[in-house]
Structure formats: C-alpha cells, structure tokens
C-alpha cells in the first residue's frame, strides 16, 4: 500500500477573527443587499472563530479586476507551494530528485502552463516527472487528489508522488456581487495551501508516517451538477450554492458510508 511520507501546510500571513469579517461583510453588503440583517447570523452559525487569508482584509473591500486577482493567485500559489514542498522533503528526509510524479489540485484560479509545471520549473524538479493538474473538484479536491496520487504509487511501487493542494477562495470574491451565494461564501471559506509526499511500497523513503492508503471511491449523482460550482463571468468566478445541498447529503450519506466501509475492509 502507498503510505504518507510527509505533509506540510502553509501558515498564511493574515489571520482574521470571524466577527471582524462579519463586520466587514455588513459594511460591504448593507447598501445593496436588503437581506443583509437577516443573513448576518450565518457568520455565527458556522462555528468558525478565525479565518486564514492570503491578503489583508482591506484588500477585499477594494475593487480588483479578475486579471489582477488571478495574477495574485498564481504568485501566492507558486511561492507558498514551493515552501510547502521544501518542508515536505525535509520532513521525509528526501532530496527533490526523488520526486517522480507531481499532482496539483485547485479550483480557485487559472494558470496555463499549470502550477504543476511552474513548481517543477521553479524548484528545478525532475523535468520528466509525470504531471497531473486537476481543476474543478472544489471542497473535495484534497481528498480526491490524495486518492489519485496514491493510485499512481500503486501503479509504480517505486514512485514518490508530490501532491499540492491550493485553494485561495478569498481571491474569487466578487466585490459587486450582491447575491445570496456570494454573501454565504463570505461566511465560510478561507485560504489554504498544503503539500504531501506519497510513497510506493518500494520507494526509498527514510521517514514514513503511519498512514496507509487503503481504498477510495467517487460517486456522481445525476442531475446535481448545478448544486455547487462556479459561473464564469467577466469579473471572475461567481460562486453557485443551492439550498438543496443539505438535503442531498442527508439523503445519500447513510447509503454511501456502509458500502464504502465494506469495500475498504
């Protein structure tokens, strides 16, 4: 079985109390969003105390073009991803030459060539490394990326697979979008960057975490594609949320978990 060799997360520079963001949201939405008073308690209902942001809070109160925000996404993602990868290698006792595969997962910005290529170029990793760039998995990107990285390590037992997951959700915030979905987005999402190394059975890795990959499963429910996602607008990524999300989870999670646990066993 592939195992987790190391993991590293980035401590982003701006940690902001949820109540401070609530006050900012009230200020931003008050003049153009008539339901702001009714929906403000959503900030408290999340149970979130602190939020990690890649930019200071005042940044989000100012207008920024999609181009500028996406350039910020690329710059921050690359800089912080390299830091996370270096920490992973140090923790696992490996040199960068050991990396055979690179998997990059994100849904909050665009880059072509992808960030996987930018990371390889910046760090001078193996130029023949197998690359996989995954976009559009949203909240499930990290766990799905881990499953795909582990599948690569099963196919090649000597593999050392680098997985990097980046979500800079705050940079997708559209200042002039006064929809309910955009308001709810301000109550929930933070920014995060993490990397890990997944080693195959025969990989020469001095340090291994006691976490082994056992199995995975992915399931798509027909006619639910509009439940959560992006609508791509001139101004950027417009968030889409459906009120039906809790009902879908409630209706299907009891059906999925017993089957998944049985397959893993």
List the defining traits of the structure above:
about 260 residues; alpha/beta; five-stranded mixed beta sheet; two-stranded antiparallel ribbon; 9 strands
Task: Explain how this protein is built.
The chain has 265 residues and is α/β, with parallel strands linked by helices. Helix content is 40%, strand content 22%. The protein has nine helices and nine strands. The protein has helices at residues 18-29, 36-39, 41-45, 57-61, 66-92, 115-123, 141-155, 180-188, 245-264; strands at 3-9, 14-17, 50-53, 101-106, 130-135, 160-168, 191-199, 228-233, 236-241. The strands form three sheets. Strands 1-7-6-4-5 form a five-stranded mixed sheet, sandwiched between helices. A two-stranded antiparallel ribbon has the order 2-3. A two-stranded antiparallel sheet has the order 8-9. Helix 5 (66-92) packs across helix 6 (115-123). The model has no long low-confidence stretch (mean pLDDT 91).
Class by alpha and beta content: alpha/beta
Along the chain, the helix and strand elements come as: EEHHHEHHEHEHEHEEEH
First-residue to last-residue Cα separation: 14 Å
- Average pLDDT, all residues: 91
Major beta sheet, specifics? Answer: 5 strands, mixed
Low-confidence segments, given as residue ranges, are: none
Strand order of the largest sheet: 1-7-6-4-5
Q: How helix-rich are the residues, as a percent range?
A: 40-55%
Q: What share of the residues does DSSP label as strand, in percent?
A: 15-25%
Q: What general outline do the C-alpha atoms trace?
A: globular
Contiguous helical run count = 9
Radius of gyration: 20 Å
Task: Give a count of the beta strands, DSSP E runs of length 2 or more.
Answer: 9
């Amino acid at each position: 079985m592939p195992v987790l060799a190391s993991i590293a997360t980035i401590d982003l520079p701006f940690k902001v109390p949820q109540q401070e963001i609530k006050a900012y949201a009230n200020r931003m939405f008050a003049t153009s969003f008539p339901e702001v008073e009714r929906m403000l308690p959503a900030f408290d209902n999340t149970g979130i105390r602190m939020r990690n942001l890649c930019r200071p809070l005042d940044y989000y109160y100012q207008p920024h073009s999609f181009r500028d925000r996406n350039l910020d996404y690329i710059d921050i993602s690359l800089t912080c991803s390299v830091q996370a990868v270096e920490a992973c290698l140090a923790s696992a006792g490996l040199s960068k030459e050991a990396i055979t595969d690179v998997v990059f997962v994100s849904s909050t910005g665009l880059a072509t060539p992808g960030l996987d290529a930018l990371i390889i170029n910046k760090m001078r990793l193996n130029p023949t490394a197998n690359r996989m760039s995954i976009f559009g998995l949203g909240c499930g990107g990290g766990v799905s990326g881990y499953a795909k990285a582990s599948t690569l390590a099963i196919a090649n037992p000597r593999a050392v697979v680098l997985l990097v997951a980046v979500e800079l959700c705050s940079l997708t915030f559209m200042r002039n979008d006064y929809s309910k979905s955009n308001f709810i987005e301000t109550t929930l999402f933070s920014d995060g960057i993490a990397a890990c190394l997944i080693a195959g059975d025969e990989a020469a890795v001095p340090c291994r975490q006691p976490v082994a990959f056992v199995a995975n499963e992915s399931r798509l429910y027909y006619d639910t594609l509009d439940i959560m996602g992006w609508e791509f607008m001139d101004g950027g990524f417009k968030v889409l949320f459906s009120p039906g999300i809790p009902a879908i989870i409630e209706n299907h999670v009891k059906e999925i978990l017993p089957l998944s646990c049985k397959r893993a066993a």
